[in-house]
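User: Show me an example of a complex going from sequences to structure tokens.

Assistant: Sure. Here are the input components:
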Amino acid sequence: MSGEGQGSSHWFDDEAGPVVRPYAMTRGRTNHGAQHRLDLIAVVVTEPHGDDPEGDPSLSPEHVDIVELCREAPQSVAELAAELDLPVGVVRVLVGDLVDEELVHVSRPVPPAELVDESILRDVINGLRAL
Amino acid sequence: MIFGRSERGMPQVEPVTLKILVAGGFGVGKTTLVGAVSEIRPLRTEEVLTEAGRPVDDTSGVESKHTTTVAMDFGRITLREDLTLYLFGTPGQDRFWFLWDELAAGALGAVVLADTRRLEDCFAAVDYFERRTIPFVVGVNCFEEAARYPAEAVRRALDLDDDVPVVLCDARERQSVKEVLVEVVRHAMAYTADDRASVST
């Protein structure tokens, strides 16, 4: 980082807090080359063989957290970000790494226009009423 | 922390996920509405600063800072084990509108919350969803101290198309918010049905 001559306070703004630190986990990467942007509600699912992520030295603790959380139950990208208290952009990069490692796969949400089956929307209505 | 393990070889249930956006002016009750029906959590997203944000986001001294943090509200409603509905409160400030495009992509529909004392605050959201043909419902949040107007008066004031539902609601009340969301889904169903009809004829 070109921090020369700049006080550390320059890395902060009042609203946002530190802006650099989260991306240290991604080794500075802000996007994952191979992947197009994952939707916030794309669901991350741990592969059945992804049962020993801690034994993999190439993974960061955050990678391991994602593998474990998504083994327990598939999680959306938004949920992972909220649960791990990480910016969405960081989670996208980390999930991209895990897809490359074949430890997780991602199922993309079906666009509503392609929800051929209207019964899903009826189920949503009934589910909401039953809340 | 102990994580439960699913049975080896058992396929995980991959839920169908849907999202509804909650838009409206600052302080109109978006966070309250999301919180009334779901456990609410803040979601941080870091975005590349755009031209639109340049006059506002003063980066002098931090020219290397190209991203900004935007927080939005996010709620999850588990309808069934394999069916999850997410609510996203859209960021209120106009300069974060570029974020909306991502949120809006693939959204089932939207709620535009309105306060009759400052109806103009929701014009921008109404325009946005109209332009992108995203089905939306206008929810008039009935603040106790605000005068009540019939839904039709609000419709005229906002110059809404006849098919856009206008619902009077109380963003604090779970039951009321449920009805608003049901209306969004019903409207979305009618909307896609119309869409198909117009394509096939």
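The lines above are the inputs; the final block is the predicted structure for all two components together. The beta strands of chain A are 12-13, 17-18, 43-46, 75-76, 104-107.
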